[in-house]
Amino acid sequence: MDKLGYEVEKLLHHLEPVGLDGHHLEGTFALSNYTFYLVIALFLTLLFFVFAARKASLVPKGFGNLAETGVEFVRNSIVSDVMGPEGLKYLPFMVTVFFFVLFNNLLGLVPGGLPGTGTVGTTFTWGLFVFLTYNFIGFQKNGIAYLKSFIPSGTPWWLQPLILLLEVVSHLLRPFTLGVRLYANMYAGHIILGVFVIFIKIVFDQITAGGLVVASLSFVMLILMYAFELFVAFIQAYVFTILTAVYISGALHAADH
Amino acid sequence: MEAITPLFPEVLISGAAFIVLFVFIWKFALPPVTKMLDERAEKIRESIEKAEETRIEAERLLEDYKQQMAEARNEATEVIEQGRRVADSMKNDIVAKANEEAAAIVAKAREAIVSEKQAAMAELQASVADISVSVAGKLIGEKLSADDHAKLIERYVAEVGSFNDN
After folding, report:
1. Beta carbon pairs, A and B, within 8 Å
2. For A95, which of B4, B8, B30 is closest by C-beta distance?
3. Largest interatomic CA distance in chain A
4. Predicted ipTM?
């Protein structure tokens, strides 16, 4: 049991954001263990889109088809469905959000890799970007009337300050909820996978008959959880993007409320 | 609680990476892809429309052909019917004319027979008269014995017989 505790401690330590040299990052501009993979994900995403743009042909095939399917998915199933035709203006932003989150999530599943989205430094920042973007769109589209949309029409005057306060707080919480949801999913997924690896490792260090059963079960669970994490990587990219779409759509149509 | 506080270097790098990727996708990567997607959608829409138009045109042509076929069939039937009518009337004419001609021929033949008969009768009468005159002459010219009488009758009969032979 001590060994398990020690290994889990080591895993959690491994998942802490630190500089590549193992030292703390405060006061530096160095890459952390997470942002290192984030930069790799950036290059992979850039490469993906370079190929997508160059391979774009009227009759889709191979790689071009994959990229187009992704872009089409964001365009039709997220942007058009949630925001309507006027949302297409924001397609580049939505595509960036979806694919960057997805590539980062997937990179965390490469053995030895970490998801760039497994740290709050990344997810809060992107949550903040979404917050700034949709509020900017809200003001740009509706002017000062955007603020009025915070209070639903028909609210009694004496309730209005309270509603306004609640609305403002709920808006201010959005970047954090976006950030924490993504971060927690990626971080927790990594811990689960790590724990099953630890089980297998401990058993192989001191082989016993019962231990082999644990190791076999852990191995099966590791594979199952790996598949599940692959699913989570897509789902979380989808959730982050569709919430962004919902927020932007709310800002676009603020005057309707 | 340490892990829940964003680290400034991570904020900076993830923010910068996002902006770089956004600008790249916005300015360079997405326009050709969306343009192509739109073109493809347009092309598919056009193809479907064209196929629909072609189908309608084909149906219209088929209808035309069917109508033309029906018209041609009616016309053919009419031509045959008309031919039959013409042939019938020609046949009737020909038969009527033939009957007329036959009747005329028969009438002419009958006329000819009648006139021949009259001529023959007239000739016979003349011959009988001649013979009577010559018999009378002979009776007047000589005294007839019983023998002469018999010979005369014989000669007469022979003459009449030879006359009949002619």
Report:
1. 125
2. B30
3. 73
4. 0.88
